[in-house]
Design brief:
Its EC number is 3.1.3.25. It contains seven helices and 15 strands. It is α+β, with helices and mostly antiparallel strands. The structure holds D-MYO-inositol-1-phosphate and calcium ion (CA) (3 copies). One calcium ion binds next to β5.
Length: 274
């Protein structure tokens, strides 16, 4: 299947950045690792990959701005278009030699995500979607899984870590989803978790507090694969505060119900402690 000119630009940038990550993978002693905050690492691999994406996309569309994880916001002359980029999603995995990481690039037009690309260099899987055009892995059309009950579903999640997020709340959520499903997984790269839903590997996924670059590309890929993507109340997913829940219609509904039960349970404990 021929890709659009836009997706060609995005996949080329992701491929080049992915090659740089592959070269750096396993070379942690040479990667000048530093911490941006508690357990929040960045390395030369993140920065090199980001520079490659920045150069490639700037050359192809010189007017468009950026929101990048490491570099931050870069204003473009065209106020309508902005690239949202995570050059290395799954930095902790990468630095531990775990081949579960990705390059994630989305295009926002007039405030809406209209295209997304997630590239997994370790498996050479290139996930793409453009609004209204379906979702693909390499050239294979993607469709979310058809399982209809939570009891048969495998659910991915993202967990808070040292110094980040609400750990107590997450334990309630895990207890409920784990108790009601076939199993849960925490793989450590949100963009790959999302495309796993699009590909029907995971039946659903939830995580709190994601940043735009973690999920902008993955969320359009899930939607274009027929999935539902919302916040935890079933409303429009917003990149701030970045709470995301997704799956096919039935699993998404069942997942939201479990997350709501977790929320009710934590409220009860807070009320009785007060
Ligand atoms: C992280 C990963 C992880 C998620 C974290 C993100 P990074 O991104 O996506 O799965 O749980 O919230 O920060 O820092 O490796 O690009
Ligand atoms: Ca990071
Ligand atoms: Ca990320
Ligand atoms: Ca990152």
């Amino acid at each position: 299947m021929a890709r659009s000119a836009l997706l060609n630009v995005m996949t080329q940038a992701a491929t080049k950045a992915g090659r740089s990550l592959t070269r750096d993978f396993g070379e942690v002693q040479n990667l000048q690792v530093s911490m941006k905050g508690p357990a929040d690492y960045v390395s030369a691999a993140d920065r090199k990959a980001e520079e490659i994406v920045f150069q490639e996309l700037s050359r192809a569309r010189p007017e468009w701005g950026f929101l990048m994880e490491e570099r931050g916001a870069v204003e473009g002359r065209d106020p309508e278009h902005r690239w949202i980029v995570d050059p290395l999603d799954g930095t902790t995995n990468f630095l531990h030699g775990i081949p579960q990481f990705a390059v994630s690039i989305a295009l926002e037009r007039a405030g809406e995500i209209v295209a997304g690309v997630v590239f997994n260099p370790a498996t050479d899987e290139m996930y793409t979607a453009e609004r209204g055009g379906g979702a693909f892995s390499n050239d294979r059309r993607l469709r979310v899984a058809a399982r209809s009950t939570l009891t048969e579903a495998l659910i991915g999640c993202g967990a808070p870590f040292l110094g980040h997020g609400d750990h107590a709340r997450f334990l309630y959520e895990v207890r409920n989803v784990m108790g009601g499903s076939s199993g849960i997984r925490r793989f450590g790269a949100a963009s790959l978790d999302l495309v796993a839903v699009a590909a029907g590997r995971f039946d659903g996924f939830w995580e709190r507090g994601l940043k735009p670059w973690d999920c902008a590309a993955g969320s359009i890929i899930v939607r274009e694969a027929g999935g539902i993507v919302t916040d935890f109340a079933g409303g429009k997913f917003d990149h701030i505060p970045g709470d995301i829940a997704c799956g096919n219609e039935l699993i998404h509904k069942a997942l939201l119900a479990e997350l709501k039960r977790a929320d009710d349970a934590i409220r009860m404990t807070q009320t009785s402690a007060a």
